[in-house]
Specification:
- The chain is of the alpha+beta class.
- It has two domains: 12-263, Penicillin V Acylase, Chain A (4-Layer Sandwich), CATH 3.60.60.10; 266-375, Nuclear Transport Factor 2, Chain: A.
- Helix content is 21%, strand content 33%.
Length: 386
């Protein structure tokens, strides 16, 4: 789907074959602070806020512009983040449920404690345990490292300061006699554990699990932090900040969430009357042809075909991964000059996507753009992509 724009997002811990990120908790029974260095290739980093709703807590998430949370904090004082690079055999129990979207986000929005989080992962499929481990911690200072071992879910509980990740032995040495749980002490450890090179640390975050304060660092560019408060930010409604520009954006009106940051944005789009069924059938045929590996140049403008032609095999593989094309449902139709724009909910066996098609005056496709996608809960787990 990548070349056609039907992109299912993949976060850093899915693709990384080496240890990435450093995560730790500092606690003394009265304080509980959660620390993370986010190591990856992508410099486009973000923090976004999703207010509470029916059946889910308000949350802050940190990550990249793919909209898939790498870590987060909720209004109950529960936090999580991942460390990549632990390649393990992982055979989820058949009775485990699938979820819509990112399982980590579904966990955070429905769990109040570490034990709640453990129970979630015991009953819901999380494919990433074949290549990563997650640390969860709550306001009591309790924490758990959850991953896979010998094909089964493995849980390591603790009630004291602890951590793991890229920094490895250096981190363990610094935590042998844990410092007082303060932002300053943890920030010093984060600085000592910065990764450099191609997958250098892109941001560092601190979550105070009791006060719900959030501190963002942009090492090594700046040594000072930006301080936010989860509850105050949620009161502004759903919004996000680009971490590299956050100081400027804090002086401006909040930026509404993009589709890939929302919980279930596809639910916002309702079917409209399709007055041009032949056009819809034409788009369906084009997608089916791409799945069959027989794309036709005359279906596209020369400019678009020049970009798509070299990628036909990749397009076919990506589309086939999502299973049979089930339906196209028109949800929007606009005209601007000689161009007609159509937006459809495209339903495949394994995924749903919001897809935009633009036709030129010659009825050739001038643009195909994905406005977001969602893998179905009952879809098979995807294999790692390295």
């Amino acid at each position: 789907m990548k070349k056609l724009g039907l992109i299912l997002t993949f976060c850093c811990f899915i693709s990384a074959p080496v240890i990435a990120c450093t995560i730790f908790v500092l606690t003394d029974g009265s304080q509980a602070l959660f620390f993370n260095n986010e190591d990856w290739l992508n410099p486009n980093t973000r923090i976004w806020f999703v207010p509470a709703g029916d059946g889910h807590y308000g949350c802050a998430y940190v990550g990249f512009d793919d909209g898939r949370a790498q870590g987060g904090l909720n209004t109950k004082g529960l936090a999580f983040d991942w460390v990549a690079g632990y390649m393990e055999k992982w055979n989820p129990d058949r009775g485990m449920k699938g979820v819509r979207g990112n399982p980590s986000e579904r966990m955070l929005e429905t769990s109040a404690t570490v034990e709640d989080a453990i129970a979630f992962f015991q009953t819901h499929r999380e494919p990433e345990f074949s290549r990563a481990r997650v640390l969860v911690a709550d306001s009591t200072g309790a924490s758990a490292i959850i991953g896979a071992k010998d094909g089964k879910l493995n849980v390591e509980r603790a009630n004291q300061s602890r951590g793991f990740g890229y920094c490895g032995p250096k981190l363990q040495k610094m935590l042998t006699k844990p410092p007082e749980p303060t932002v300053a002490n943890g920030a010093a450890i984060l600085r000592a554990c910065l990764q450099k090179g191609e997958t250098a640390t892109k941001y560092s975050n601190v979550f105070d699990l009791k006060s719900h304060d959030i501190f963002l660092f942009q090492y090594p560019e700046r040594d000072d932090s930006v301080k936010l408060n989860l509850n105050a930010e949620l009161a502004k409604g759903a919004h996000y900040y680009d971490i590299p520009q956050i100081r400027q954006q804090l002086t401006q009106a909040p930026v509404p969430l993009l589709n890939n940051m929302k919980r279930f944005f596809l639910d916002e789009f309702k079917p409209i009357s399709d007055q041009e069924p032949k056009v819809t059938e034409h788009f369906r045929t084009i997608i089916q042809d791409a799945m069959n590996g027989i794309m036709h140049p005359d279906d596209y403008t020369p400019e678009l075909w020049k970009r798509l032609s070299p990628a036909q095999k990749d397009i076919q593989a990506d589309l086939k991964r999502e299973g049979d094309l089930v339906s196209l449902t028109l949800v929007d139709r606009t005209t601007e000059g000689s161009k007609r724009t159509y937006r459809y909910i495209m339903e495949f066996k394994n995924a749903r996507a919001l897809e935009r098609f633009v036709l030129g005056e010659d009825n050739r496709i001038a643009m195909i753009q994905s406005d977001g996608s969602e893998r179905k809960p009952d879809a098979p787990d995807e294999a790692p992509r390295f």
